[in-house]
Amino acid sequence: MSTPLWVQWDRVPRNPTFSKEAFYVAREDGLIIYSEIVDSSKAVETSEAGVWPFPIDKAFTALVMDTSSRALSYPDVLMATGVASDGLSCRVGAFPTQYQYQKSFFAQHLFTPVEAISNWAPVSDLAITRLGGRERDALLIANGRAPHGTISELRRGLNAIIDNSFGGVRGCTGLWVINYATNTYKVDGKSTKQHYAILLVTLPPESLVIHVMRTQNESGSAEGESWSNWEEGEWDYAQIPSENAPVQDDIVRDEDTISACMLGDDYTIQITRREARLLQRSSMLRLDSTSFPSSLLAAATSSKCPWISVVFRQEGKIVLYVALIQEGLFDKSIRHELEVDPTCLELLDINGTPHVFVGKSDSSFVLFRIHESGSFVTVYSDVLDRGPDTGLRMVCESAVLLELEQSLVVVCGTRNGFLLNMALDVTNERMDISLLIKRNTKVVQNIAFFQWASRKWALPQPK
Description:
Strand content: over 45%
Largest sheet: 5 strands, antiparallel
Structural class: mainly beta
Number of helices: 1
Oligomer: single chain
Number of strands: 35
Distance between the termini: 51 Å
């Protein structure tokens, strides 16, 4: 485990009568120190200014709005960005109108968040698929910063090793595996095994289809043949269509995809801004489709739920729409009006029953159960508290259901960088919700800071 690096520093202005040079130094794990250099003695006086709530990259600065004597009595305002940051600015010190002379100097110079710029952080997507010849799943991610964007495979373990990668997908906003399989064929009397996966990549305003292949050859003596190790195989990539592989499927390419998944061994779902298509997984030919009256605000699919969930505007109303997939067709549907725009939409399979999680722009969220009778049942709704340390609104932007033995937890990612951990307690009856907020900070490999709130849900058992 390496020691965190000092990544950036910036000087801050002081009154001309001040005899020292002052500056802040930022470390990648978020630690900020304040230093003053005395010109006459060359000595450096250093103290800890505070800890940034996110890892910090090279982008770190002290903001200078004005150099007048009055402005120099204001607190120092710092700003930094990083992988998990959303453009947070913090101040060191109090504004003149907030200064309390009865408090100590230290109490007046606390590290305090001021404001954040939403959607500042770079967003990566991921997909999990089982590649042939392995006992474990592969984790494929869209990663990198402009101008270097790649699709990479991460290996399991604390030290994630990139097995292979390729470029050409700068600006990618979504990545899904829509089919995978293993084919075996003979070449010069030798058996060759080809593992492949079909990737659907959103590159607004279009979608790309990329064929990723891994080839292994049969080896050994006449008495017994065996397959080469995975590490001895060869990677190959191809975008479809190409000169040698014309379009022979019904995948939508001239619009950006906002959700897709494989549904069992038979189906693949693709949802664009205007249409949802159900494809035959083996051939990628269309089985059924449904169009929407306006461009979708959000969409969700799940390999565990034979449903699609979308949100669109119609006649001035915001409509949550779900449709059942049955026997190769989009079957019965349910509609429900929302009060505000969605910021998060997810399909969750909770104890074998489909649920829809909706995070909303007013900081609220709701969990619907899709009832067998063809209706929505609200099992829980709430408004997120303001961030424990930042005071900013907690707007949910992603949600995932985690399962460990008999425990179920929904983890939500919020716009201001928090993880909201909500434990599900499925009971036979509706129970009162006991709410518990925790504030904690953990260090992951010395550089990554995470903060979260924890809630307890009690859900009725499906009838």
